[in-house]
From TrEMBL:
SUPFAM superfamilies for the chain: Multidrug resistance efflux transporter EmrE
Residue ranges of every copy of the EamA domain listed in the record: 3-130, 143-283
Annotated Pfam families: EamA
Keyword match Membrane: yes
Name of the protein in its database record: DMT family transporter
Keyword terms, alphabetized: Membrane, Transmembrane, Transmembrane helix
Residues that span the membrane, as ranges: 6-23, 30-55, 61-82, 89-108, 114-132, 144-163, 169-191, 212-232, 238-259, 266-284
Length: 285
């Protein structure tokens, strides 16, 4: 079950990141974060009420609150980096986020087997190559790299916090709701401050209502990915869950190939193959 949930996380995150990066090219990144997370918070609020998840409230929700504080910073940095591009640089570098939950798991005493260690090495190498490294030192690319590193640290921290935020499925709904509400409050505050400084909150032609379904998808896919990751970390080794969940750049690259007709280079195809081999090693290790 760990492998299944973690791979579902990769699929959801990969599609959400692809959509978020495209939307940020048409509207401010903060607006994308606030609107998409508001939709997710609204849906989760209904789920919490319907399931009676409020009864699961307890000290563990502080982990969800902390994840909500960190999440907007990570999302904003990542969407800005994706908008600057190229996605072949940004997406693979974001896999460094796996270092945080892996480090936490090792500190807590988790020890992967030899086959799993090999799978981790092969999968991470494959993901990096799947992006088709193209670091050439241009100023904009250096900024994109810096933003991606900030996002990776933030994402890794969110992974670790969400995994600790609940012990039951209904508790997970409540934890994700608290996280998303915090996301909206933090992101909305930052957006308001940006507007007061003169930055636009919307495109010149007003709110892009046609993009609302895409914004909703990004928010819901992101929250669903957090949920499946928490379930993956609960059902098996965090070291395995974290690495398999970090395969989302392969999904982003394939989405760019399918929707934007970006051609996969040989190094990207080889990387995707290595990522698959690493996944099989982790799943069977």
């Amino acid at each position: 079950m760990t492998a299944l949930f973690a791979l579902a996380t990769s699929l959801l995150w990969g599609l959400a990141d692809f959509g978020g990066g495209l939307l940020t090219r048409r509207m401010p990144a903060l607006t994308v974060v606030v609107v998409s997370q508001s939709v997710a918070a609204s849906v989760l609020g209904v789920v919490v009420l319907a399931t009676g998840a409020w009864s699961e409230a307890g000290p563990r929700l502080w982990f969800a609150f902390a994840a909500g504080l960190v999440g907007p910073i990570a999302l904003l940095s990542f969407y800005k980096a994706l908008a600057l591009g190229p996605m072949g640089v940004v997406s693979p570098l974001a896999t460094l986020s796996v270092a945080v939950p892996l480090g936490v798991a090792l500190v807590l005493g988790e020890r992967p087997g030899l086959l799993q260690v090999a799978g981790i090495a092969v999968a991470v190498t494959g993901v990096v190559l799947a992006g088709g490294p193209q670091l050439r030192g241009a100023p904009v690319q250096r900024r994109a790299i810096l933003l991606t590193l900030v996002a990776a640290l933030g994402f890794g921290t969110v992974f670790a916090l969400v995994a600790e935020a609940s012990t039951t499925v209904t508790g997970l709904f409540l934890a994700l709701f608290v996280q998303r509400v915090t996301n909206v409050v933090v992101g909305g505050t930052a957006l308001g401050a940006a507007v007061r400084r003169g930055a636009p909150a919307l495109p010149a032609d007003g709110f892009p209502w046609r993009s609302l379904p895409a914004l909703a998808f990004v928010g819901l896919a992101d929250v669903a990915a957090n949920g499946t990751y928490a379930l993956a970390a609960r059902h098996g080794p965090v070291t395995v869950a974290a690495v398999l969940a970090s395969l989302y750049p392969v999904v982003t690259a394939l989405a760019a190939r399918g929707f934007l007709s970006e051609r996969l280079r040989a190094i990207q195809a080889a990387g995707a193959g290595l990522a698959l081999v690493g996944t099989l090693l982790l799943a069977t290790g």
